[in-house]
Design brief:
This protein is mainly alpha-helical and 443 residues long. It has 17 helices and 12 strands. A hairpin with an 8-residue loop joins strand 4 and strand 5.
């Protein structure tokens, strides 16, 4: 059997990671088996399925490298096939017309007639699943306005596309009993089903926007790399069995099997994803990292376009190993501003301690006396200022960092000062010293 799987999103404007995770698993399964990965856009909701919403799906898939093998099928173009299937079901007695509830004014709909027996199907992940006949009620397949509902359209399209395996979220398990019944009523081969575990938050609840970034576009805007997100989501509910956390796409394809997909919920951990992203960023060749940062900043961080290009390249080289998200680039601004904004809380906690002002003066004067500005020489100046002020080793690093950059975290302060240069560093130290003096006078 030649494997044929599909990703069948309903375009709504944003693509949830749960949906794109299903696409990734379908893609991996098809590529591993040497089969076909198909795309079907279920665009029958004309109000929500706008061209922009459809494009959002295509953009998300393209960004993540989820290439499909045949022309996309748009469900809205398959109406004649849906209607023909409904007519066949009506003729064979497996469907009937009626009104929903006891209100004739609601309009006539078409119901699918369930077989009236217990139903069972084998799930490639969860095993054999069974539903009692009494829990399987007839259901609507055509609305009163004549439009087919999801159930009939989904099955008819899967038949038409020759789908062999349906890999989707386990929120569809109840639907699958209905769909198996429709396949059987149409004398069609029932595909193999595999229901993926739900993605949950730390509390075990369905992961949503309230828990953080939840849509593919959110992750892209925050500066996650496509390969990092693909890597993380491919392991969200699947284990390759080798304690691998970072793997190439080629490795994932070679190792992927449905047998190793877990049946229990998969917890989304943004910290793990962010750490994985930082690994991808740190391992990029410097030239590729710089190109990636500039491409990201081009449409999201306006000041970068005006920044000194040579200095920006040097800053990128210094901070690559400390970058967790491409969005971190906006925090590099202090390298390029004459008077960078200061974290006032950090100023209060570091610069207004006894002896700090005098120590900053010693650092300023010590830097001015250096014949050559190197990281080692800067460190020597700070250690000497600490000794002269009766401070313990490294106690000046944070006050100097806040005075020079305005923030409390970053690369080595010695390397930062070298990048800024002696003149710009002294100017910033003078500003901090003056600010401390004014504050002391007010007090």
């Amino acid at each position: 059997m030649s494997v044929r799987v599909r990703f069948a999103p309903s375009p709504t404007g944003q693509v949830h990671i749960g949906n794109i995770r299903a696409a990734i698993f379908n893609w991996l399964f098809a590529r591993h088996a040497g089969g076909k990965f198909l795309l079907r856009i279920e665009d029958t909701d004309r109000e929500r399925s706008t061209p922009e919403a459809v494009q959002a799906v295509l953009d998300a898939m393209t960004w993540l490298g989820l290439d499909w093998d045949e022309q996309p099928v748009y469900q809205s173009t398959q109406l004649p096939q849906h209607q023909a299937a409904v007519e066949r079901l009506l003729q064979t007695g497996r469907a009937y017309r009626g009104c929903k509830g006891d209100d004739p004014s609601s309009g006539e709909v078409v119901f699918f007639r369930m077989p009236g027996t217990d139903m069972t199907f084998h799930d490639e992940i969860k095993g054999t699943l069974v539903k009692k006949a009494g829990d399987l009620k007839d259901f609507v397949i055509v609305r009163s306005d004549g439009s087919p509902v999801f159930h009939i359209a989904n099955v008819v399209d899967d038949i038409g596309m020759g789908i062999t395996h349906v890999i989707r979220g386990d929120d569809h398990i109840e639907n699958t009993y209905r769909h198996v019944a429709i396949f059987q009523a149409l004398d069609a081969t029932v595909p193999n089903y595999a229901h993926l575990p739900m993605i949950v938050n730390a509390q075990g609840k369905p992961y949503s926007k309230r828990d953080g970034a939840a849509f593919v576009g959110d992750f892209r805007e925050q500066g996650f790399l496509a390969e990092a997100l693909f890597n993380y989501l491919s392991l969200l509910g699947w284990s390759p069995g080798q304690d691998l956390e970072k793997m190439s796409r080629t490795e994932a394809v070679a190792l992927f099997t449905l047998e190793r997909v877990k049946s229990g919920p998969a917890q989304m951990d943004l910290r793990k994803l962010t750490h994985l992203n930082s690994l991808y960023l740190s391992e990029m060749p410097p030239s590729a990292f710089l190109q990636t940062v500039r491409a990201y900043a081009a449409t999201r961080v306006p000041w970068v376009a005006e920044a000194d290009a040579e200095l920006f390249d040097r800053v990128a080289g210094l901070l690559q190993s400390r970058t967790t998200l491409l969005a971190n680039v906006d925090a590099w601004r202090y390298f390029f501003e004459d008077q960078p904004a200061q974290d006032e809380d950090a100023v209060k906690k570091t610069l207004h301690k006894p002896g700090v002002r005098e120590s900053l003066i010693r650092v300023r004067d010590g830097l001015a006396a250096l014949p050559t500005l190197t990281a080692a020489a800067v460190e020597t100046v700070l250690r000497a200022a600490e000794t002269a002020g009766g401070l313990s080793a490294n106690k000046l690093n944070q006050p100097v960092r806040v005075a020079v950059t305005g923030v409390t975290i970053g690369a080595s302060i010695y390397d930062i000062i070298v990048l800024l240069g002696a003149s710009r560093t002294r100017t910033r130290l003078d500003r901090a010293i003056a600010k401390i003096a004014v504050t002391n006078q007010v007090v």
